[in-house]
Amino acid sequence: xxPSFVRQFDFRVAGGGRPGTGEPPEYLLWIRxxxxxxxxxxxxIALGDAPPPPAMTLFRQFGPIxxxxxxxxxxxxxxxxxxxWRLLRSKAETIxxxxxTQEMQVWDAKGRPLLLARQNVAVFV
Length: 125
Prior knowledge:
about 120 residues, mainly beta, Porin
């Protein structure tokens, strides 16, 4: 049921909820591109957009989502020679009336911050 683009990434759950479980709307994931050559800034940003919104932990079924706003700050660049794994934390702050706001951070494997973001999404479930 996952969109086909997620096959481009490896995911390892490190904590938080999972979509459809009713668990708190927060993810903690290790994520990387399956293509080791994906080391550009746009590849880093794609990691932040790969998981579904954390609000999806509260819904028993998937449905379309649409980003309405996404504010992204690049605060560091990864070492191009590392293994590509990034730790991503995303937490929903508000959920209701078909919308969710969330905040996100992405770190490299050494704990250095790479991305800070805020997003507002429409959830059609």
